[in-house]
Amino acid sequence: MAGEAAALLAAARAELRARRLSAAEELLSRFIARSPPGARSDLATALNDRGQVRYLRVEFAAAVQDFTAAIECQPGFEVPYYNRGLVRYRLGDFDEAMKDFRKVLELNPQFEDAALSLKQAILDKEEKQKRGY
Question: What angle do CA 57, 61, 65 make, to 5 degrees?
């Protein structure tokens, strides 16, 4: 079973890299539904990847749900915090985006994209406040 699960996850990730989003989502959803006990790292990866699919489809609420589930599954995995922060930033929820980017940097101080995104979120929040909305 573990070998089948690993092959399923690998196939799903290959579909995602090839931007075949429907196939990737279907395979990731199958993996998530069948995730073997004790495979929390792989489950977190699959949830994060499915969140990416949903983000690319501009299905932001579903993407946030998957990123949050990945975080709950593996709290030390910084990537879903970053991805959730990007969605929140894009939605204009700068405070929550900044929390996520800060958490990424707490977990991995070398995550340069998170540092840049945090700086941009701070600047955009300040600009929003200057404009009164």
Answer: 105
- Phi/psi of residue 38, each to 5°? 85, 0
Extract the tokens encoding 121.
């979120």
pLDDT digits (tens, 9 = 90+) for 21-59: 999 999 999 999 988 677 789 999 999 999 999 999 999
Residue with tokens 């969605």: 87
- On whether the CB atoms of residues 66 and 47 are closer than 8 A, the answer is yes
* Cα(24)–Cα(122) distance, integer angstroms: 34
| Residue entry with tokens 């340069």 | 112
Instruction: Look at the pTM and tell me if it is higher than 0.85.
Output: yes
Secondary structure class of 70 (helix, strand, coil): helix
Residue 76 DSSP symbol: T
Q: What does the block give as tokens for 124?
A: 């955009």
The one-character DSSP state at 77 is -
